[in-house]
Amino acid sequence: MSLPPHGIFSLRNKAAHSQRRGLLSHAFSQQNINDCMPIIEQKLDSLLRSFNCDTSQTVDVFLRFRLFAFDVVGELFLGTSFGASEAGTAPEYLHDVDRQFLFSGIKFNFPLLATFLSQIPLSSMKTFTQGGERLAQFGNSAFQEYIQRYGRDSKRRDLLTKVLVPQQKGKAMTDRETYVEVGNLVAAGTDTTSTTLTYLFWSLARFPEWQNHVRKEMHEKLGRAAQGPYEMQALNGLPVVDAVINEALRLYPAAPASLPRVTPQEGWQWNAYTIPPEASCRAFLHTATRDPIAFPDPDVFLPGRWLEAEPTTSMKTLFMPFSKGTRACIGKSLAMVELRLVVLGLLSRYEVKLPPQTTEESMEIRDHFLVMPKSGKCELIFEPLPEGRWRRPDQTPDRRRLITAQYDL
Ligand code: HEM
Q1: Which of 36, 148, 186, 366 has the smallest number of CB atoms closer than 10 Å to its CB?
Q2: 10 Å Cβ neighbour count for 307?
Q3: Which atom of ligand 1 is closest in space to residue 195's alpha carbon?
Q4: Which residues bind heme (predicted)?
Q5: For position 407, what pLDDT does the model report?
Q6: Which phi and psi angles does 231 have, rounded to 5°?
């Protein structure tokens, strides 16, 4: 999944990985994410405007959420406004991310086949196998442009400035390593977030009572602020919102079978199992989060399980959609902010309904390392809520002015 040279996903040496992780993970502190709220809200605003459509039409949320998540990480890590939500179509960069994911899967599992494919002199095959190189080239020029425009110690409220902080202190990654990692972060932060949102909204459309539970909480806890602009602190105190998010993460972990690990030379003992030396292993998160002892009725969307009582030890142990340990997700805090914002932004304006064409079958999971619906889309109906009951009169112009004021540095 990583672009050459080796980046955080493919660094096998523990010390090198841990050093690289240290250089990147500080960028994701709660304070830094807080500083980026104006940028994230601006992207939320574009997403919300893209839902302003005739209600008789359906919206393909799989595409919409993908464009939103991409716009967020693109702006935060490349300093580039792709405007994908406004354009309504995926830019070429995202198609290369898709190609790179698929080709990386082949590289991991069938390295000889990958070498063979990359030597086929057909232009369509080159387009497929060289996606990673194009991403790296794009990353390089976006990075150089960023440095020219803002310098290396800009006060801009994005996350690339935070990634560059260690460089100021002389501990740095080289420029090449930096733009490679930036490419990894953009790829890692796009489809994971959008897949989670897609399955979450599909679930909410099938279990509309949970939409009302969320609205009730919004109104009790946020009042007039339910439609934003949002305060980070307020986002952290919404247990019902978090329960629906956790339940979607539990049922549909976006990366269901983590990247492969290799056992040490002496092999590995795991409970009653002896795993041979240098064997490739994966933790299958999808089955862990559907364990029937920890999660009774494991295949059913039951957000109440996160609200009824303190989660049990086995729930805490097996719930790991962001993985656990030294290679767990470093983008979790950013992802959680995005998920909460989209839930609030959409449920405070729309009732989500299920059209007949979106079925269990069309939403069946396909595992391309990251999960996606078999049909490649998820069409849902977004019906504006009647003003007064839940929804305030549209505040969009105020919202935009406020966000722009915060954003303009
Ligand atoms: C709902 C959204 C997300 C989910 C479900 C998710 C899930 C995961 C999982 C399961 C892993 C571990 C993979 C493994 O063990 O092999 C991981 C790693 C990682 N994630 Fe995420 N992720 C999400 C969002 C993000 C975002 C927004 C970013 C950054 C912009 C990000 C950056 C990373 C990075 C850099 C790693 C590798 C960490 C390391 O190897 O040290 N993720 N993610």
Answers
A1: 148
A2: 15
A3: 1
A4: 329
A5: 45
A6: -95, 135
Residues 299-328 have pLDDT tens digits of 999 999 999 888 999 999 999 999 999 999
Q: Pick the residue whose CA is nearest to atom 23 on ligand 1.
A: 192
CA distances from 353 to 56, 257, 328, 383 (A): 11, 31, 34, 8
Of residues 187, 164, 240, 177, the one with CA closest to residue 370: 187
Q: Which amino acid is at 72?
A: V
Q: How far apart are CA 260 and CA 8, in angstroms?
A: 14
Quick check: CB of 196 below 6 Å from ligand 1? yes
First to last CA, the chain: 35
CA dist., res. 179 & res. 310, Å (int): 42
For ligand 1, atom 32, the nearest C-alpha belongs to 331
Strands (E), 257-310: 261-262, 268-270, 273-275, 280-281
> Is the residue at 202 inside a domain?
yes
Residues 6 or more apart in contact with residue 12 via CB below 8 angstroms: 6, 262
Q: Write out pLDDT tens, residues 98-131.
A: 888 888 878 877 889 999 999 999 999 999 999 8
In the structure encoding, which two tokens stand for residue 36, read together? 């980026």
Torsion of CA 296, 298, 302, 308, to 10 degrees: 30
Total tally of structural domains belonging to the chain: 1
Domain assignment present for 200? yes
Closest-CA residue, ligand 1 atom 43, reads 329
Distances (CA, A) of 152 to 111, 130, 162, 184: 38, 30, 10, 20
What would the two tokens of residue 293 be? 């002892």
Give the structural domain span for 310: 14-407
Residue located via tokens 């002199």? 121
- The answer to the question of residue 8 being in a domain is no
The percent of residues in the chain predicted with pLDDT above 90, rounded, is 50
Mean of the per-residue pLDDT values for the chain? 87
> Which CATH number belongs to the domain containing residue 353 in this structure?
1.10.630.10
3 state DSSP class of 263: coil
Q: Which atom of ligand 1 is nearest to the CA of 334?
A: 27
Q: Please identify which residue in the block is written with the tokens 């339940």.
A: 247
Residue with tokens 């260690």: 166
> Does residue 1 lie in a domain region?
no
Query: What's the CA dihedral at 192, 193, 196, 197 to 10 degrees?
Result: -150
Spatial separation of the C-alpha atoms in residues 57 and 73, rounded to whole Å = 29
